[in-house]
What does this fold into?
Amino acid sequence: MSSYHPPREELALPAVLHALSDPQRLRIVRELSLDPEPRPCGSFLLDVSKSTKTHHFRVLREAGMITQREVGTSKLTSLRREDLDQRFPGLLDAVLASAETPVAVPA
Amino acid sequence: MSSYHPPREELALPAVLHALSDPQRLRIVRELSLDPEPRPCGSFLLDVSKSTKTHHFRVLREAGMITQREVGTSKLTSLRREDLDQRFPGLLDAVLASAETPVAVPA
DNA sequence: CACGTTGTTTGATGATCGTCGTACAATTGA
DNA sequence: TCAATTGTACGACGATCATCAAACAACGTG
It folds into this structure.
């Protein structure tokens, strides 16, 4: 019962951009890029419920941005950096760099 | 009755990524980047209705990706490349380069 | 075995999205 | 002045989205 991971050639730009356009998911990707060690979903500090977390990880996986590998009761998540870099060179880095820029608060 | 254009400092990454995650809007941005000359909305060949076109241009404008300047009955649209490049360096170029890669069709 | 941990599934809710057609407004040109 | 052009406004529609709680499943440990 392993979940679907799209092969590299099928990664679609709109899906990737949509996956990255949610703040929670952007945070997940960001954390994963800072610490590339595969981590269980639960180790990500998001202020959403468990089921919402599951939802976001599915969106990221189906967009081809992460891999999820079952180990015991956990599911180790890692970033598909190589696939992303090959398919969309420079994109992930640009997004991650942009994500570090603080958002200006309107006065 | 001029429409709202967010100042550069307020451009938000999620909004920009969301704006780019729609194929029609991505096409608009792509055409604008190839031909930076300000163009009326109607000159973009999208297979959607007039009102849908208006909608997409509004999303792009409110995300801070384009400027719209009224000239007669037309509205000249141009890409806010400088603002985007300053706020999110490399992002637009990476997206545009990625957009040129053909999407693989599943067998 | 029983319990805690980890994550999924299901069903629901309210919001947003992409799309359309119709009607309208404003400008240009005959 | 009348008509064509260019774009917006207004609903409306079905689809998708982000979110939640509750129930469930699988694994590990006491």
